[in-house]
Fold this sequence. Notes:
alpha/beta; Metallo-beta-lactamase, Chain A; six-stranded mixed sheet; 19% helix; RibonucZ/Hydroxyglut_hydro; MBL fold metallo-hydrolase
Amino acid sequence: MTTSHVTVQLIGGPTALIEIGGLRLLTDPTFSPPGPQPSGASILTKVTGPAVSADDVGAIDAVLLSHDQHPDNLDEAGRAYLPRVPIVVTTQLAAERLGGNAVGVGPWTHTELLRPEGGVLRVVAVPAIHGPDGMEASSGPVIGFVLQGEGVPTTYVSGDNASLRVVEEVAHHLGPVEIAVLFGGGARVARLNAYLTLTSPQVAQAAAILGARAVVPVHSEGWAHFTQSQASLAAAFEVANLSDRLVLLAPGESRTL
């Protein structure tokens, strides 16, 4: 039974502060100022900086890093920030590259974080497909997370996932999900004719699949290759008759759910 709440603050892009079970968790840190960020042989352009700086975000118990290979999920300042936290939960390959405080988890495996008032928060890694099926070799491994613990709302953090089939698997294996932090934005890059994250209508579809009472979209502003906005999210949820579940946050804004 849920006896506590979850607070989510949007820092910007994919970066959100999630307070759950007495812990403060940060998703995909992107603290660099606006400007170009190298991404392999191409360049991604950051158009807005974070609403809260790395120095002002406060003490963080863990970073949930969906992947380390793309700067819109881990930019230069975000990478420099990682040693400041006790643990970085990420893909196994990213943990090998990052070393230090990084802990690698594969899909459907988990690690546990000690809660300050006793007990643990279970961090379950779940699959994420960063583009259409078959893109895994090109995009590299990505994971999402499901957060579970006694008395806390089960919370799903999708990471850069473009697959509704994956959302269905999460709902089937680990549901019911109460809170969903979904990476949207319909990300696209010039070399690929495909969406690399959920589009706004797909975020609404994911909300319906999960049955979550609150859906907080992230990864829908701040970078030039995000093709869909918070306005399109609002429209998609209205069409799906799910507006009562949508929690749209401006960068810097927080909501207790």
